[in-house]
Amino acid sequence: MKESAATMPAAEARQRGMAAAGQFVDILLLTRRSVRTTLRVPAAFLPSLAISVFFLFVYDAGLGNIAKLPGFGGDYLGFILPVAIVSAAVSGAGSAGQALVRDLESRYLYKLLLTPASRAAIVLGPIIAGALELGVQVVIIIVLGVALGMRPATGLAGLLVVLLLALLWGVAFAGYAAGVALRTRNAQAAQAATFAFFPLIFLSTTFVPKELLAAEWLKVAATINPTTYVLDAMRALLLHGWQGRQLLAGFVASVLFALVTSTFATLSARRVLSRT
Amino acid sequence: MAESSIVVDQLVKRYAGNITAVDGVSFTVEPGEIFGCLGPNGAGKSTTVQVLTTLLMPTSGRVLVAGHDVVREPVAVRWAIGVALQDVGLDPLLTAREILELQARLFRMSARAARRRADELVELVGLADAADRRIGTYSGGMRRRLDLALALVHNPRILFLDEPTTGLDPASRAEVWEEVRRLNAEGVTVFLTTQYLEEADRLAHRLAIIDHGKIVAEGTPAELKASIGGEAISVSFADRAQVARAREALAGFAERIETTGATLVVYRERAAAAVPDLVRLLDDAGLAPESIMVAQPTLDDVFLRATGSRLANGATAERAA
Known about the structure:
- The complex is a heterodimer of chains A (276) and B (321).
- In chain A, 79% of the residues lie in helices and 0% in strands.
- With 276 residues, chain A is mainly alpha-helical.
- Chain A is elongated.
- Chain B has 321 residues and is an alpha/beta fold.
- Chain B folds into 2 domains: 214 residues, P-loop containing nucleotide triphosphate hydrolases (Rossmann fold, 3-Layer(aba) Sandwich), CATH 3.40.50.300; 82 residues, UreE, C-terminal domain (Alpha-Beta Plaits), CATH 3.30.70.790.
- Chain B is built from 11 helices and 14 strands.
- Chain B starts with 5 loop residues before the first strand and ends in a 14-residue tail after the last helix.
- The C terminus of chain B is likely disordered.
- Chains A and B meet through helix 2, helix 4 and helix 5 of A and helix 2 and helix 3 of B.
């Protein structure tokens, strides 16, 4: 009788440390696969990149003079760049949602569910790939911003922190889209879910600082909106310098948001996919 | 003797909306055998497979696969089983080599071992030339072969096949049977579901016949057919009215008579020798059958006796009293 290689290795079963390392490798492998498949459909990611770049130019061209008003810190490019970044997250989210719907429709997802990989790892693959897609766009946006004359107050290190914040933000958006994709199993619904982000993006200090917001209700909305804190953190880095309070608020908002949506995605995966 | 490969005890699976797909099913599968689950569409075969392979949670009942409880130790179960479902599950944007390597690595093989395993499997299922092309370019037959290869990546000792030859042409079907036999000869226990009598008859060592979520018969193909009690004479008439009259005419002639549509099936020992008597009885009653056929009992006969319908064409039949 042929010796089976497939008994759960006793060593792994015993050692919790190895189990955790295994999870980490699974997430890497699954993310790599998602990135690979994303790159193989350029038509899916190029348009949103073009849109982000386009808006950056348009915002600056149209609204650039506002920076001369007090409260802006003088450089509108630095003020508006975070908006371009945060709205670009919508495309990474859409990508993650679509990837999961594709996996559901092709039924490849079931093959993945039949491996020892955890549900969380399986869902995180497309989510992180979506965040990375956003990351690439963010780098391009930043490079463009610098080319257009923006000089970040915190230099290269600050730009890297902006990128990190953007990646966390990307995970947060992607997690939500992933959860909706898993529950609806429908490409259109998954795409429509990303439209839910637009209120988040615009009910905030999107175009002007909070003090200059015209309506009281908008000020209130901006205060409870996590987007505001991320925008403020990025603006602090680009325009003012290392401001601890804004940075902390921005990271806390992103991390919390990312945790909430990733949990939503994992729960959706468990509930909907395998255990009806 | 090693413990059973699969133990199913009063498995019930109910979906939302009170649809009971599996209604108290119990059976065991011994190591090294090919166990078949035969039944029409909607009988509960696919649901059963999905519960046994940890893709669905049972509503109640106990299921042990390779000694592990599917509810409490799903990961341990996944290590021991390979699964090829009715619909192929592949990512069209990956290549065969990539998909096999990823699966191998998710089963904790090193990068090198995974690559070697992918090479082996790609040779085994005849996809060596296409291994680095995207799966989206493959034909249906190629995808099925890859699907099976994917199930075998981690050398599972139990293989689940859900309707493995549905929709295949006879040549491909024969190839699949060959592959199943070969794997079984190497020691792999096989659990397969099918709606094809011939497949169940030829491949399975033991069978469970399932209908409307319940097992209606169980045993080896030979045992099941012998349980019918003798050979069968199928007498076809032009219309049902004649069938009813024929029933009366033949009362007492046979141990058992069943009707299905415009055909009468008469069961008795040494049926061939009894044909002249049968013809005489019908003739005396003024009946002229369109055809008379003597046949060994088939699994369809077993199904008919157990459920009152034919498996082969789904036509409802009336049972003999």
